[in-house]
Amino acid sequence: MPREIQLQAAPEVAAKPELLAAHVAKLFQVSVSEINHVVILKRSIDARQKAIKVNLKVAVYLNEEYKEENIALPTYKDVSNAQEIIVVGAGPAGLFAGLRLIELGLKPVIIERGKNVRDRRRDLKAINRDHIVNEDSNYCYGEGGAGTYSDGKLYTRSKKRGDVDRILELFVGFGASKDILIEAHPHIGTNKLPKIISDIREKIIEFGGKVLFDTRVTDILVKNNEIEGVVTQNGDTIHSKKIILATGHSARDIFELLDRKKIHIEAKPFAIGVRAEHPQSLIDSIQYSCDFRGEYLPPAPYAIVKQVGGRGIYSFCMCPGGVIAPCATSPGEVVTNGWSPSKRDRSTANSGIVVELRLEDFKPFAKFGALAGMEFQKSIEQKAWHLAGETQNVPAQRMIDFTQTKISTDIPKTSYVPGTTSVELGQVFPGFITQTLREGFVEFGKSMKGYLTNEAILHAPESRTSSPVRIPRDNFSLEHVQIKGLYPCGEGAGYAGGIISAAIDGEKCAEKIAESLVHV
User: Fold this and answer.
1) Predicted TM-score of the model (pTM)
2) What is the rounded distance in angstroms from the CA atom of residue 176 to the CA atom of residue 506?
3) Phi-psi map region of 89: left, alpha, beta (phi>0 left; psi -120 to 50 alpha)
4) Most buried of 102, 294, 440, 487 (most Cβ within 10 A)?
């Protein structure tokens, strides 16, 4: 059996197998020829001291054969003639629900309003180049959901390691690098995710599932508080007694539909702010305390949290070596998000810097009931669109200028392709958000020397951090508290916060459906 140990090594040693083997041999006080193989099980960076180290957990094969284990996909059954379960949304919650349903002998019918990953690219090009927003196909809607073109971060705060490992192994089985199994903060990359997502879809179809693109759900059929099926924009009716509703955090029309039909939903706190872009070299110098990162360290991320006036302000979805993207889902609004390619090799780093909101903040929109937070969110996005010139340009300001309420006389070209318009960002937000952001950036600058700089450009708004609505469900059955057969799922229902947690939630909903059918 291999011996597992934890150790620290210099970045170059951790990156080169021959140097790592020599390092391990020294620790074991044996000849390097006795080290047959060293497998890295976990890896993280410790940058707290000037001499940066890599924390490693490794399995050491001493004078014994090493065989690489391949990650195999589960055994899927042909479900062509099985009971049909509707899954609304082909994001991570919907796709992983579909895979799990097939494992459990049920036939998923996945309904996606947007296009497949390949065709979706044309609509992304249109929003970047021509400022045209397709309401059904954009950075948020389409195969793979918002995660496909927003970085592919796989970090989760879920404490159930077995669930997390299962999802990571499924990603590897569908073509992701095995590195995601060992990194402390795993990441696939926007350039690699589309192929993985399309392979998942092909597997679902291969084993008898259905995937319907360009198909928007316009009604949910309910009789005596029980699900009957859905109606699409073409007027087609698809019948099923079970629906997994995995429509993501931006499907406002679904929230409005539920509200109209008196299906219980609740306003939910979320967070709003800006997306801050720095030169990656500056973030490297702050985080690694060095003038040049070198080839053995990855582009540095950062995570920061502060309290300002009793309200939290924190970094969100930080993208080292990444790009800011236009993520509006309707004409007449602007929205930002960030992503990184797998190598994280762009010259800029960006992160959402967001302020926590409370339900009482939505009081000016109280007439909208459970949709008050959504209308609050919408009002900021629409104001930003108006202030920036009523295109997909975003309002932008240099960071120190923002803290001092100065309009920036010039905004350099940033990674945000549609373009920027110099705006005093205090005009975009309600006063309490503006003040919290201004004081927060000053506090950030005290903790991260060099962070508060006019080299950093703020883009507004970062507004789709999580769903502004919760669709309540029973804690045990995962069914909606009012409607039998409706399974609110993932980020849009308020039960997830990223790719991994959404995928886990999709699987759990599929499992609960299978359990309920066994007991019928």
Assistant:
1) 0.95
2) 20
3) left
4) 487
